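ZP: hey, is the uridine-diphosphate-N-acetylglucosamine complex queued? I don't see it on the tracker
AM: it wasn't, my bad. submitting now with these inputs:
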Amino acid sequence: MRSAIVLAAGKGTRMKSSLNKVMHPVSNKPMIGHIVTSLRKAGVENIVVVVGHGAESVKDYLGDSVQYALQEPQLGTGHAVMQAQCLKEVEGDTLILCGDGPCIQSETIEAAFAANENSEMTVLTAVLPDGERYGRIVRGSNGNVDRIVEAKDCTEEQLAITEINTGIFCFKNKLLFENLKEIGNDNNQQEYYLTDLVEIFNRKGLLVNAMIVSDPQETMGVNDRIDLAKAQKWMTRHECEKHMRNGVTIIDPDTTYIDVGVEIGQDTIIYPNVMIQGETKIGSNVTILSNSFLRNAEIADEVTIDSSKIVESKVGAHTTIGPMSHLRNHTEIAENCRIGNFVEFKNSYFGTGSKCAHLTYVGDADVGSGVNFGCGVVTVNYDGKNKYRTTIKDGAFIGSNCNLIAPVTIGENALLAAGSTITDSVEDGDMGIARSRQENKAGYGTKYKNK
Ligand code: UD1
Ligand code: CA
C-alpha cells in the first residue's frame, strides 16, 4: 500500500498573503492541487493532508478526495506528521512531502517508493551550487547520510555543504510512526524537526538511504513570491518540453504557457505569446498564432487560430479562426468554417462550411451549414430582461449589417437583404428586406457643397 502525507499547515509568512501558501496557484492550479495530482498518478492510495493555517480553504478546494489531519498549533514538520495518526496502522510505505513543492513529478514519486523498497527510510536530496536556506545533508565517512542540519542550525562548515534536503522522504510506514515520538525540539527554533528522524533511524540501526533528484528545481520549496515565479517558470518549461518531445513545435517556450493536463496532437505549431489553459484538447496539424488564449477548448485537426480567444468552446477540423475572434460559453463551430476578423460567438452552434468573416456578433444562435454572414451582422439576443435564440437554416445568406431581433427563424436558402433589421421569421427560399426605399435627389450634392 502506498500512502502519502502532505504538510500544509504552516502559515507561509514569507508569502505576505491572506491566502494559504499552498493555495497559491502555479499554472492556474493551487500548489497543493499539483501535488495531489502527481501522487494519484503515481498510484498513491491514501493521501493525508496536514492542515492548520487556513485549513478551510484547503479543505474546500480538495474536498473529500483526500483525508485530513489538523495540526494546531504548528510546532514543526515532525509535529505535523505526528498528527497523521489515521495512518498509524497502515502497511506499506509512506511518502512525506511539503505542500509548498508544486513541481514534483509522478515519475520522481515512483522512483522514491522504488528506492525505499530495500530501505527503511529514504531521503530525497538535491545538489545546489549554493545550499541556500535548505537543510544540509551531512554524510559520514562511509558515505551514508548521518543527519540533516537545518540551515539556521548549521556551522560555517556545514553551510558549505551543497547537498540539501528536498523535504521529501519515504518511510516504512510503521517504523515512521514508532519513531516519531522520539523527536525533540532542542534546536534554534524550538520546533519538532522531521529531519531528526535520520539520526534516530541511524541510532537504531535502521537503514537510511538517499536518492539524489537529478533536477533540483523539481523539488524546490516555494517560500515567497520570488520562489513562486521560479516554480511557474520551471513548470512552464517542463510542460513545453513534454509537448515538444511528443511532436509539437513550440517556437518560443519562454513565452508559451500550457497548463498541466492540456493535450496537443502531433505537428501542431504554437507561435510565441500563447496561453493554453484548463482541460484544453488540441488536435494535430493545428496552427496557433501569437496572442491566442484558450481555456477548456476543444480544437480538432488542421485548425488555424490567429490572435483569438476561445473559452469553453469547440472548433471543428479545417476551420480558421481570427484574427481577433472570441468564442465563448459553449459555442461550437463545425468543420471547414471560417470565423474571421473581430467576430464574437457566444453559446451558439455554427454548421459545417459556414462563414462569418468580419465584425459580427452571434449570440444564442443555431446556424445550419453552408450559411454565409456578410460584414457586421448582429443577432440581437437580449431585450434588457431576457435572452432569446436565433435560428438560421442551411444555405441561408445573411447580408451585411443585418440585425436579427430574436427570437427569429431564417429558413433554408433564405436571403436577408443587407442593412435589414429583421423582426419576423423568413420562410425557406424567401428574401427578407427591412429598410426604407432609397430616394435620389438630382444635383443636391453639388448644391450642398457650394452653399
Ligand atoms: C523544510 C525542511 C528542510 C528542507 C526544506 C525543503 C524541516 C525541519 N526542514 O524546511 O530541511 O530543506 O523543507 O523545502 O523539515 N509545515 C506544517 N507544520 C509545521 C511546519 C511546517 O505543516 O508545523 C509545513 C508547511 O506548511 C510547509 C512544509 O511543512 O508546506 C515545510 O515547512 P517550511 O516551514 O516551509 O520548512 P522549511 O523551512 O522550508
Ligand atoms: Ca519550505
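AM: back. The CA atoms of residues 184 and 340 lie 68 Å apart.
ZP: great, adding it to the tracker
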